[in-house]
Amino acid sequence: MGKLSGITVVDLTQFLPGPMMTVMMADQGAEVIKVEPAAGDPAREQAPFDSYGGAEHSVWFANLNRGKQSVTLDLKSEEGKAHLRELCRRADVFVEGFRPGVMARLGFDYEAVKALKPDIVYCSISAFGQEGALAHHPAHDMAVQAMAGFLSVNDGPDGAPVVPGVASSDMAAGLTALSAVLMALVGRDRTGEGAYIDCAMFDSLLPWCVHTAGSAIAGGPSPKSAEQRSLGGAGFYQVYETKDGKHVVLGGREIKFARNLLHALGRGDLLPFAEAPAGQQGELIDFLRTTFATRTCDEWVSWFADKDVAFSPVLDFREALDELHIAERQLWVESEGGGHHIAPSIRFAGDSWTPGPVPGLGEANRECLS
Q1: pLDDT at 156 over 90
Q2: What is the model's pTM?
Q3: Buried-state track 163-180, b at ≥16 Cβ within 10 A, e below 16
Q4: pLDDT higher than threshold 90 for residue 159
Q5: What is the pLDDT of residues 201-227, one digit of tens each?
Q6: What is the reported pLDDT for 208?
Q7: Do 109 and 78 sit in the same domain of this protein?
Q8: Tell me, what's the pLDDT at 53?
Q9: How many angstroms separate the CA atoms of 332 and 360, rounded?
Q10: Where in the sequence is the domain holding 267, given as residue range(s)?
Q11: In the chain, count of helices (H) and strands (E)?
């Protein structure tokens, strides 16, 4: 039995933040009833596809919706609303990801659901929250990152922002919503009272800047990447190109790592630059850039094998998933009947985990709606 066995979740979310939150609950044994429109969650149609249990599913959809039960409801019809009301009456958690105001128009805002289940834990996930000047502004992840300041330091060598490689505000919202729901469930066990959670992608992402945006948080100017230790201004937190056109990184600024590497390279005289403020390490960065260009990526991996330095090659996803470390920790697994999953990052000692089946659209209608 998982840690959340006995908890029932009614999940109206689609795409990424909500499904990421609820799959973490399903992975721990919660009964998650995924309510979809007749057309299904749009992620179902997102290529590429893999064979899970003999059926083709989107890899995205499968990894965020395994172990759930899918029901299809038309929430604009009286029949669909009646079925959803019945689901609410036996739910512990209700999660929705519509734009603010939609659930009230459908008749399933917090007060309406609370009337059906007084101790419900109700979580709304949106881009900017249920209230405020931006509440009704349409946005997906990159727009939220842009509005929160993060894209300004996700820049290339020319200083122009580039498309981020991680949907950080989506993922931050999923993690924040999960934490809030679990806190509310703990509180409900103590007091018998449910809770309403207004989880915004914007609000969830903003605290992630405290180690880089200190000057702005203190009321001063915005940081510039080239002047920040963690954003490109330090020699030992930097990306370098190798002789074969690949890349490696130095990912630890502690002076012990700088001492170990610079002495191994015969340039201990550059150590003061490693201790200098970010933005004043140009001579060190130039030396390291020239040095890394003298060998291939594989040659550097071999050279660093006996060095105590925070160093890594830059791998693509295929290379990363094929790493021995991934296999040893069973982080990339094949489900029974085929189909690949990224294993949950939350796993408890002594507990075994296997991927739950990927739900076909509406396949639980009879079971869940009878």
Answers
A1: no
A2: 0.95
A3: eeeebbbbbbbbbbbbeb
A4: no
A5: 999 999 999 999 999 999 999 999 888
A6: 97
A7: yes
A8: 87
A9: 22
A10: 237-309
A11: 16, 13
What gap in Å lies between CA 75 and CA 73, rounded to an integer?
6
Token digits for 315? Answer: 């791998």
Taking Cα atoms as reference points, which of 220, 288, 291, 214 lies closest to residue 253?
288
What's the residue count for the chain? Answer: 370
Q: How far apart are CA 51 and CA 27, in angstroms?
A: 20
| DSSP conformation class of 161 | B
- pLDDT given for residue 1 in this prediction: 79
> At a CB cut-off of 8 Å and minimum separation 6, what does 84 contact?
10, 35, 73, 75, 108
User: Which active-site residues does the annotation give?
Assistant: 170
* Predicted pLDDT at 368: 94
Q: Are residues 250 and 339 in the same domain?
A: no
Strands (DSSP E) found in 49-126: 49-52, 55-58, 69-72, 93-96, 121-126
Structure tokens that stand for 190 in this block: 């103590």
Average pLDDT over residues 357-367: 96
Residue 221 placed within a domain: no
